[in-house]
Amino acid sequence: MKGAESEPFGDDGALGLTRSARLEIINAELAGCSLPLRKQTGKHNKGEYELLRIRNIHLNRYYAVVEYAVICPDGQLGTYYVQVNRRFVTHRNGKEGKEVNITGAVCLMTIDDEWLVLIRQHRPTVSEWTTEIPRGFVPAGIPFGRFPRIRQMPTSIAADLTALAMQDIPFGILGSELAPLISTRFKGDLLTLTRLAYLGTVLENTGISENRTAVMRLSASSRDPDVVRALKSIRTPASRPFLVPLKGIDEAWASYGLESAYCLATILMLLRDLRQE
Question: Going by DSSP bridges, is the β-strand pair 212-222/95-111 parallel, antiparallel, or unpaired?
């Protein structure tokens, strides 16, 4: 990770500034690294962590970890780390696009209202192959509200999901996990999108992250009885998509190996959506 050092006026100097002045300095540094701005500093005398200044910003392509000097609720000085998504250069149809803010996204993909798509992939963070619901990043600010309860969609999938226009389906690089399901090995339009619904957002680990992950449900229908068998056979070097029965998911999720908090939260959202159908 690269580090971007803060202005060296120190914690003592920051204590001498008003909250509005500190917020202005903090946001100027965040803006300089293309990071979302803060709405407030917080007030320690109201039981909140109060931001004094930025000590360091650790950057990678997708997110940043911001190291803040803070006043703790007990009045002591301390340090607080916050993970935020950052801007990155988008690529569309092989061409470099503009730089945009990104946010996390999860896609609950169901087929024929009978199958749920999961993936197996290796996560160095836990040194294990984990079972997850497909997720990735999409541009922040997409008006997801226009997608609820779409019952008929003209888009048929025959090749690469990532080739679809962002304004049609807001997947971004989330498509890299779902694209193997739409492999060119299938001839003809075997899958047709029937519904794209925005189910809401899930907060990530609020102890370190300010990010909210958008949750979508994509429904597809198959025109070929062999499509399920074909989808089950897909393997890629990075991920291994597979299908599990949608019926009984409320009791069977643990047996599928779904352990991460975001998976459990999105399963609850899926169950709510199923009850409303």
Answer: parallel
* Residue 236 DSSP SS3: coil
Kindly report the pTM of this predicted structure: 0.71
Q: Residue with structure tokens 């056979």?
A: 233
Angle at 225 between CA 218 and CA 161, to 5 degrees: 35
- Classify burial at 62, counting beta carbons within 10 Å of its beta carbon; exposed 0-12, middle 13-18, buried 19 or more: middle
Contacts 24+ apart (CB under 8 A), 77-83: 77/11, 77/52, 78/49, 79/55, 80/49, 80/51, 81/208, 82/208, 82/209, 82/210, 83/204, 83/208, 83/209, 83/210, 83/211
Q: For the chain, which domains are there?
A: 2-85 (no CATH), 98-276 (3.90.79.10)
Please give the mean pLDDT across all residues of the chain.
75
Q: Which of 202, 200, 197, 201 has its CA nearest to residue 217?
A: 197
pLDDT, tens digit, 9 for 90 and up, residues 225-246? 666 666 666 666 666 777 888 8
Separation between Cα atoms, residue 167 and residue 138, nearest integer Å: 11
Phi, psi torsion values for 38, nearest 5 degrees: -85, 145
In degrees and rounded to multiples of 5, residue 18 shows phi and psi of: -70, 160
For 45-74, how does the pLDDT look when each residue is reduced to its tens digit (9 = 90+)? 999 999 999 999 998 877 899 999 999 999
CA R_g for the chain: 22
Cβ atoms of residues 110 and 219 within 8 Å: yes
Q: Which helix (H) or strand (E) holds 203?
A: strand 191-203
Plot region of 139 (φ>0 → left; ψ -120 to 50 → alpha; else → beta)? beta
In single-letter form, the type of residue at position 167 comes to Q
Q: Could you give phi then psi for residue 53, rounded to 5 degrees?
A: -165, 170
Q: Which amino acid is at 218?
A: L
Provide the token pair at 174.
């989330």
